[in-house]
Amino acid sequence: MKKSKRKLKRTTDRPAMSTGEIVGLNERAFAAAAGNRFTADWRAWGTSQDAELANDLTTLRNRSRQMLRDNPHAMNICRIVQNNVVGSGISTQARIVLPNGDPDDDLNNAIESAWAEWCEKETCHTAGQLSMTDMLRLAMAGVFRDGEFFIRKIHRVFGRGEIPFALEVIEPDLLLDFEGAPVRSNNGAELRLGIEVDDWMRPMAYWFRDKHPGDLIFPQTEKKARRIPAKEIEHLYVVNRWPQTRGTPWMHSILLRLRQMSGYAESELIAARIAANNVGFIEQNIDVEPTASGAKVHIPPMERSEPGTFRRLLPGEKVTPTNLNRPAGNLEVFMRYMLREIASGVGVSYESLSRDYSQSNYSSSRLALTDERENWRVLQRWLIDNFLSRIYREWLDAAVVSGRIQIKDYFQNKRKYQAVEFKPRGWPWVDPSKEMKAYETAVRLGIMSRADAAATSGSNRDIQEIFKDIKAETEMIKKDGLDWMLKASPQNEGISTDRGKDDDDKD
């Protein structure tokens, strides 16, 4: 015990710090936080995400829209996002099972048929203009361009449908976020950027304008705001920081790059046009200074030339040709660099954005596409979890209540009957022969199912539909006496396990 006391005394009775040590404590531990002449103009504020959006969201949104209107690369990025996340649609397969574990094919088929019928534009959209696939593509474009997408769920029948459920698209501009927005609602809840939240930041209601504030062609004399309960709204956006009430446009990090690149390309184009229009300069050995009498020297006007003509010069004149070194020699290198920066900012490959494959081979293309497609898979899952599956569950509730789908114990076993699998699009092969061989091996080894192989290869069709088509095709071949075609048909013979007979193994 005495030894421990002496040790404790030595640690506590340390001498006072010197002046040099105190100065050292005032120095930044991180180089990036140091204050010197190199970082004097580096300003960073400790504001919340909502505070940053409150100041800049409208500007970012408007500039994103302007860039999509005028810049071909911005429009191409938006199409890339839509095509890779949604494509031609996301298929749906109900996964309800019987007590013995077998699929309930009759009920699954009934639900899938009713869902496909409802997904038509006349029934799922309040205005009858957007199918479910159209709405999914619009949602991804809205999140990319505006940072967010709003859907209001309306419980009534539209068009020729039987299910009292439809969706209304609401533009983010309608949210009463800044102008005339109250700080608190009538019940005392906090309003953050037009969204009424409780103490846990859960949305309670959304405050929308009746009309678009920028609808100048059809102005409204009276501005009204309506409070819509949060249970009627699906607000789709990516959370970058928490708490975050509104979404951030995905192009925010590349807007300046896109504008600078467009400005530079336009300047080079103007310079090239000027250089092409000016064939040369005519020099004259005359005195252009005013004479003693004040008379002005006449300067001949600009000469115009036509293709295939020769002009004689006056005595004392000579032609100096214009330097046609336009566009600049480093234009291609600069534009390629800028496109790589832009591609990195939005998570796409340079090849996809630029459509330039001159610098790529099979290995580099496959590596780039593999990394990019992983990003698309993340976004596909995000879209399904945060939008499509939520819509599907509420639609199924309405379908059962309306009697369109007959399930007696649905509300007692909702989790069972809401089991569903959404199959987004896959992607074609970079090298079909090599990748088909890889899928064949994976299926043979039992580490991949045929359904997985079909989905990965770019098909979002149900494997049952594929098998039905194969069966029907096989029967048709036999009926027409074309049995010779079945000898080379892998679906009829099964996948061979004899690697010695595989032609590809001879290589």
Quickly list its features.
507 residues; alpha+beta; 4-stranded antiparallel β-sheet; 16 helices
Describe the protein in words.
- Strand 4 and strand 5 (195-197) form a beta hairpin.
- This protein has helices at residues 2-12, 19-26, 49-70, 72-85, 105-118, 121-124, 132-146, 255-277, 331-346, 350-354, 362-402, 414-417, 432-445, 450-456, 463-479, 490-493; strands at 91-94, 149-154, 166-170, 190-192, 195-197, 203-209, 225-229, 233-236, 280-284, 317-321, 420-423.
- Helix 3 crosses helix 4 (72-85) and helix 4 crosses helix 7 (132-146).
- The protein has a four-stranded antiparallel beta sheet with strand order 4-5-6-7, with no helix packed on it. A three-stranded antiparallel beta sheet has the order 3-2-8. Strands 1-11 form a two-stranded antiparallel sheet.
- With 507 residues, the chain is of the alpha+beta class.
- It is globular.
- The chain contains 16 helices and eleven strands.
- Helix content is 43%, strand content 10%.
- It has a domain at 428-500.
- The protein starts with a helix and ends in a 14-residue tail after the last helix.
